[in-house]
Amino acid sequence: MRIPPRLKPLVEEGVIDEVVRQLMSGKEAMVFVVRAGGEARCAKVYKEADKRGFRQAVDYTENRKTRNSRQARAMARGSRYGRESQERAWQSAEVDALHRLARAGVRVPKPYNFHEGVLLMELVTDAEGNAAPRLNDVALGPDEARDFHGRLIREVVRMLCAGVVHGDLSEFNILAAADGPVIIDLPQAVDAAGNNHAPAMLERDVANLRNFFGRFAPELLETRYGEEIWAAFQSGTLTPETPLTGRFTRVEKAVDLEGVVREIGDAEREEAARIARMHGG
What we know:
The chain is of the alpha+beta class. The chain has one domain (about 5-235): Transferase(Phosphotransferase) domain 1 (Transferase(Phosphotransferase), domain 1). The protein contains eight helices and nine strands. The strands form three sheets. It has a five-stranded antiparallel β-sheet, covered by helices on one side. A two-stranded antiparallel ribbon has the order 6-9. Strands 7-8 form a two-stranded antiparallel sheet.
């Protein structure tokens, strides 16, 4: 096939031997099947910011760090250089997340190379060796749905133990590989401890899994793994092996009305004393 312009430098430099075909085009990137080092791999070509359907919402970029102070100032000002730096940071976030999660044992595609907005990584395949389909294109029986759901809840836990929340997890960015589900599309991944929106994002990710697999195994619709997982993480007790029940009851602390009344009374007395001192009383 005709070599896409963004992939030409990698072909010319010998990083990619051949571009086989386009695999898909999504809201944030186009993905191609390529050959490199005698193996089939995939090349993710990120779309320019003005051509992406997925915007760099402040919820996702909150508290992302840059090592370069000049870049940080430019990004804050919104200059052209700052926008370019922010775009590079957005793209490299997926590479960083893939390496971080792979080290933690999360099933994600193995990253090989990242160059000028192109991510070269493992081609995830099905049992026949073809590119694995997305989960939304797969029909599941009840038992298989329960199995996949259980595996993915464990992957969410491993991700969180590594300090990462996917932020956009759904059946559209999970592949049904020969050896089970594989999580993809991570440029919007957020730091669990450094982003105020992380709890809501994690609960939404888990709710997306619940709602999808609940179509095939309706009992899953009654589960509340998201709240249970985050509560364990917040308390410092979450590990990849933490037993989960799917049940969660939020504990509401009783309001100490007597204590509130005492504090109001103390404040009123302090104010009265202050006014008396002002008038020489």
